[in-house]
């Protein structure tokens, strides 16, 4: 009986705690909609706790809450200009590893030597001097000394850079709404920025 009573008490404690959490996580529905600033190349859509954002060609989406004039965002997916599909940030390491699967030191050297030869051919076509050609050849001598890339280290670095980049855009956003204007701050410099309601 005592054991049954314990589980009943525990159930009600969890229920009350859940109600408190839900009550505290109220959303400001006045920001629902799409807001943008063409000059800053920024656009963000808020929709009852979910958001999607474009900043200079980089795309983010995730969840958000609001409290006391501040938007708190949690990014869950990203997409760049070269990506057609959303990438879950938990899968970023796999994504970068896949990108390195086809890496070859020899193909890297081949690429740079081809670039050198095309540059020299172009310079010769416009009457470049022998000294100018030699300078280009010297500029590419480092290719011969290329060492094998530590792929694991490169993947770790790309992952760290991406997560640090994402973290910047998760910074709390102080905001206020005035008619069709959403006043907030610019992530890059912390300066004020106005976003106009698009829809």
Count of structural domains: 2
Rg measurement, Å: 26 Å
CATH architecture of the largest domain: Beta Barrel
Distance between the termini: 59 Å
Largest sheet: 10 strands, antiparallel
What is the name of the CATH class of the largest domain?
Mainly Beta
The overall pLDDT, averaged over residues, is 84
Strand content: 25-35%
Can you tell me the residue ranges where pLDDT is under 50 for at least 5 consecutive residues? Answer: 1-23
Structural class designation? alpha+beta
Q: In which range does the helix fraction lie?
A: 40-55%
**Number of distinct beta strands:** 10
**Shape by Cα distribution:** elongated
Count of DSSP-assigned helices: 5
The CATH topology assignment of the largest domain is: Lipocalin
N-to-C SSE string, H for helix and E for strand? HEEEEEEHHHHEEEE
